[in-house]
Design a protein that fits this description.
Helix content: 55-70%
InterPro entries: SHOCT
Transmembrane segments: 6-29
Largest sheet: none
Domain SHOCT: 45-70
Number of strands: 0
Order of helices and strands: HHHH
Number of helices: 4
Pfam family, one: SHOCT
Radius of gyration: 24 Å
Keywords: Membrane, Transmembrane, Transmembrane helix
Distance between the termini: 68 Å
Shape: rod-shaped
Length: 72
Amino acid sequence: MMMGYGFGFGMFGLIINFLLILGVIYLVIRWVRGEGNSRYNSNTPERILDERFARGEITEEEYFRMKSILRD
């Protein structure tokens, strides 16, 4: 009689299913917290400069000058 342990591999299947579920839970928690893509979530100097330029706080000339300084 089948006991319904995972993929039909007995205890090994149960362990694999448990690890898969833990992996999915881990990924969902990271996604919810916003840690999936830190480039867009952190305030790096280039990101702040991009935002200032988008808001019109600095001119195009200032933007490219500051961007080149940051890259050096």
